[in-house]
Design brief:
Order of helices and strands: HHHEEEHEH
Radius of gyration: 17 Å
Strand content: 15-25%
Helix content: 25-40%
Number of helices: 5
Structural class: alpha+beta
């Protein structure tokens, strides 16, 4: 979506909203943008911000994520500094459980997107333990803020693994805005 927005010369938030009619999808995106301060963020040489949205399996929870990254001085790396997310999964019995699930998914997706990889030599995997495998450490975890939309009377939509796709997309979009290119 961000690449399409860029090609159209539009802000990624405005572009998404222009092409989205589902009121619940629009709501999580708008809440995320507002809490993140999307309109105040200026992408510059040291800071990039990005947005991601998905509906889990096209029938589950709605999740929007905004991410901010800052330059580390390398054109292939950035430090994730802040993530804001909003989830709508219908009527909620345990809001802390929902928040924890979304936050855990964000940390997992952040680690996948920025650090994790399997290294090989000519015959085998060489990082086959938790000491040598690159994974996000607690000291590398960004500030994470999760907002929960409760919809009493609405069916529960499920929230497991709902944050991973939008979080990875938001990070990739932030990196792209920071560097002007897609990271592979």
């Amino acid at each position: 979506m961000d690449d399409l927005a860029h090609a159209a010369g539009k802000d990624p938030l405005a572009f998404r909203l222009d092409h989205l009619s589902d009121p619940r999808a629009r709501a999580v995106i708008e809440i995320t943008a507002s809490k993140f301060g999307w309109s105040k963020h200026q992408t510059g040489t040291k800071l990039g911000h990005g947005l991601g949205f998905a509906r889990l399996n096209n029938y589950g929870a709605y999740v929007a994520v905004a991410a901010a990254v800052e330059s580390t001085g390398s054109d292939t790396a950035a430090r994730l500094i802040r993530i804001v997310a909003t989830v709508d999964c219908g009527e909620i019995i345990n809001p802390d459980g929902v928040r924890n699930q979304i936050e855990g998914g964000i940390v997992q997706a952040s680690s996948w997107a920025l650090l994790e990889r399997v290294d090989f030599d000519q015959t085998r995997i060489i990082n086959n333990d938790w000491i040598s495998y690159p994974i996000m450490r607690i000291t590398e975890t960004p500030e994470i803020e999760v907002h929960v939309v409760n919809r009493p009377g609405e069916p529960y939509l499920g929230v497991g693994e709902a944050a991973q796709g939008p979080a990875a997309a938001a990070i990739a979009n932030a990196f792209s805005r920071l560097t002007g290119r897609r990271h592979s």
